[in-house]
Amino acid sequence: MSGVLTLAVELAWWQQTGIRAVLGLVAVLLPAGTLVYLFLFKMMSFMQSRLGPMEAGPYGSLQLLAEVGKFLQKEDIIPEKADRIVFKAAPFVVLISTFLLVIVIPAGPDAWFIDVDTGIFLALAVSSISVIGILMAGWASSSKYSLLGALRAAGQLVAYELPLVLAVIGVVIQAGTLNVQGIVMAQATGEIFGWGGIGNPFILTQFLGFAIFLIAVQAELTQPPFDMPVAESELVTGYLTEYSGLRFLLFFIGEFATAAIFAALASTLFLGGWYVPGIDPTSDLFNVIGPVILLSKVILVSFLIFWFRFTYPRFREDQLQQLAWKVLIPLSLANIVVTGVLKVVF
Amino acid sequence: MTAVDDPRRLAYIAGQASDARVNLEIETEGMTLNIGPQHPATHGTLRIVVKLDGERVMRAEPIMGYMHRGYEKLAEVRTYPQVTSLVNRIDWLGSFANEVPFILAAEQIMGVEAPPRAQWIRTLLFELSRIANVVLFLGDMGVQLGAVTPVFFAFRDREFVLNQIEAVTGGRFHPNFDRIGGLKDDIPKGWTEETKGVLGRIRTFCDEMEDLVTGNEIFQARTRGIGVIPADVGLAYGLSGANIRASGVDWDLRRDGGIGLVHDKLDWKVWTHPDGDSFARYWVRLQEVREACNMVEQLLDGIPSGPIMAKVPRIIKVPPGEAYVETENPLGVMGYYVVSKGDLVPYRVKIRSASFNNISITPWLLEGTYVPDVVSILASLYFILGDIDR
Q1: pLDDT band with cut points at 50, 70 and 90 for residue B21
Q2: pLDDT at residue B160 greater than cutoff 70
Q3: At residue A296, does pLDDT exceed 70?
Q4: Which residue is closest to A226 within chain B, CA to CA?
């Protein structure tokens, strides 16, 4: 497997790199835009008995462009007492973690960016880089609201990193590999008690892990019910308070792109990724339809994420720490033990 | 790490160590945070200066007056009928209820009584404006705790109530409808039936809120046992309305005070809750909306026929005298102390508004809570800025 470009024509290095960069941008921005339009604009509106954007394009589908245009035109305000360099760098640090996350997720048997044996480990490791960006933003803004929000975010993200990782371990035990492509293949070629009709999507055996993973993702994204760091009714918008214009847009893209990528991770780990039953998992067809299948699974998973987001009130900071340490971590440890025992038995 | 071998440096470190406190608890510097005047949680321009230690509130001090409009003074240069258009704007969400106590006070000095039909319709609009007001609170509490959806339901269903108020009075927010000796107009044809339909929607809304908000575990975790006001403290701070009833004090001026309105002719219940926490305040208000729906239904069925205006002179001159009338408004007890010197205009009007007293408990209540709870407690106290600053 030579990565994203297994073409008949051999391309020069710069051509390959150029195409990879463009595809990377597409892989980050397209799902993010889809989620913003589908869920933030439309589903949220329908849940709240409104229509949402209706004017820009059919059913407001071009509203996204209008929003981006608006943010680009806005003045980039930097507070007078801000630490200018750190303040300017913070959104990019958050985005870096997003872009690094996307490279390990395969969208077909050959359609992926890099092949690392410890893919899922890499993904979980780089996802924590965003904490640094958030802390930078909170500290450099020289605003009390930002500082409170950033510290809350740091505490929360560190706490929920653990259940996130522990929930994945069950999958890794079952698949027998850390390689993300290997996990997809394990699901595609797996059998349920000798019946291989639909493969063996790990959500069937790892349902607890899936639930814990989704809850932890919700907290990692700082979305309701875990949005204490950006609690708009008390901290204005937490670490985002002082950001405007393009830099706010970068944070915004980061938030939704990360939501999409975590949803992609969840669907890769638990729902079979780019695979659908009925087609040979090694066929080249998946390189074409794989991305579409993955995107539809992403939409399915992120529907859950955003459903919670629009329905629940938020936990208090100490309550959400208690949930992480007293409920989720013991549960996920128990999940690992049970999975390990069953792996040996079967 | 390298070992320190410079003797002067060693002596310095030893000196520092001897100066260090024996008390191992880390001393931290407090932080002063201005919540407001522009802040999403104060829905208006209330400023609360909180002294924080980490996330814990050491001291909280509400500073009001950013929206003072001087209605008491302005009322001294307005004729009696003109004053109602001012006081409409005190509690802007339940504006008709603001007019009632003032008109009742003026009627008391003049010795006029509104005819029964006017009293019934007055009570009807009074309760409708309570629904319009408190429905918004039921949704807003969700927003303050981070759930955005309930408030949109609240705005959606409040609109129907406002439409009914508009159909009678001609104003959605500022009806200016109450007159000394009765009301400006009668209710329009077919309005009774429409209002009954609206009551159905409000009841559905209450059930929705019960499912979506009160039944939610996170909401309960955020409000149960938070911001507990014991009954004696609440009474000492002059709390009124649902805030004091949620502390278990069975006191409602609609039942216990009652002049000029016809609540005593209706079959209803005063809701109380023993806990006194944020959840109790929410729960009591939710029940009160339902109770108000029952009241409106009975009022609609029982409106007597007859005139809606008593015989009053065209140009109203109030004889010398003074009166204090208070009613149970949506936010709590609202009272007007009116002094007349026999002029076209009142000599002095003192307004006792509910939120001003309700907010006065915040320094006592917020001390020792966490920042997130500040928001939920303030939301559950339910104040309206116009009602604080007047």
Answers
A1: very low
A2: yes
A3: yes
A4: B146
Which residues have a Cβ under 8 Å from the Cβ of A257 and sit 6 or more positions away?
A: A28, A29, A31, A32, A95, A98, A102
CA distances (Å), A4 to each of A1, A81, B216, in order? 9, 46, 46
- Run of H or E residues at B61: strand B56-63
Dist CA B328 CA B305 (whole Å): 26
Q: Judge whether B49 lies within some domain.
A: no
Answer yes or no: is B222 within a domain: yes
Structure tokens at B312: 């009053």
Please report, for chain A, the start and end positions of each structural domain, with discontinuous segments joined by +: 13-345
pLDDT digits (tens, 9 = 90+) for A100-155: 888 888 887 776 777 778 888 888 888 888 888 888 888 888 887 888 888 888 88
Q: Is B138 on the interface with A (CB under 8 A)?
A: no
- Give the count of alpha carbons within 13 A of B286, CB side only: 25
Q: Give the residue ranges of DSSP H helices in A141-179.
A: 144-175
Chain centre to alpha carbon of residue B165: 19
Task: Count how many domains chain B has.
Answer: 1
Range of the domain at B148: 60-389
Hunting for tokens 């996170």 — which residue is that? B218
Residue B374 placed within a domain: yes
Burial B52-69 (b: 16+ CB within 10 A, else e): beebebeebebebebeee
**Residue B258 backbone phi and psi in degrees, to 5:** 30, 80
The answer to whether A78 and A104 have CB atoms below 8 angstroms apart is no
Residues B71-106: tens digit of each pLDDT: 888 988 888 888 888 888 888 888 888 888 898 898
Q: Specify the pLDDT at position B14.
A: 60
CATH of the domain at B161: 1.10.645.10
Task: For chains A and B, count residue pairs whose Cβ atoms are closer than 8 Å.
Answer: 81
Q: Per-residue pLDDT tens for A37-79?
A: 888 888 888 888 888 888 888 888 888 888 888 888 888 888 8
CA-nearest residue to A230 within chain B is: B146
- Residue scoring higher pLDDT (B24 or B95): B95
CA angle B18, B23, B25 (to 5 degrees): 125
Which residue numbers of A have CB closer than 8 Å to B's CBs? 44, 47-50, 144-145, 148, 224-225, 227-228, 231-236, 310-319
Q: Which residues of B touch A310 (CB under 8 A)?
A: 148-149
The stretch A164-169 carries a mean pLDDT of: 88
Contacts of A186 by beta carbon, 8 Å cutoff, 6+ apart: A174, A175, A176, A177, A200
A150 CA: distance to closest CA in chain B (Å): 13
Is B219 part of a structural domain of the chain?
A: yes
pLDDT band at A2 (very low <50, low <70, confident <90, very high): very low
Nearest to A222 by CA among A266, A259, A264, A167: A259
State how far the Cα of A16 lies from the Cα of A5, in Å rounded to an integer: 7
Q: Which residue has the tokens 């050959």?
A: A110
pTM value is 0.79
Distance from CA of A315 to the nearest CA of B (A): 6
* Distance (Å, whole) CA A172 – CA A168: 6
pLDDT single digits (tens) B185-239: 888 888 888 898 899 999 998 988 888 888 888 888 888 888 888 888 888 888 8
A48 is written with which tokens? 């709240």
Angstrom distance (rounded) from CA B204 to CA B147: 19
Q: Which residue has the tokens 């039921």?
A: B138
Q: Is B155 part of the contact surface with chain A (CB cutoff 8 Å)?
A: no
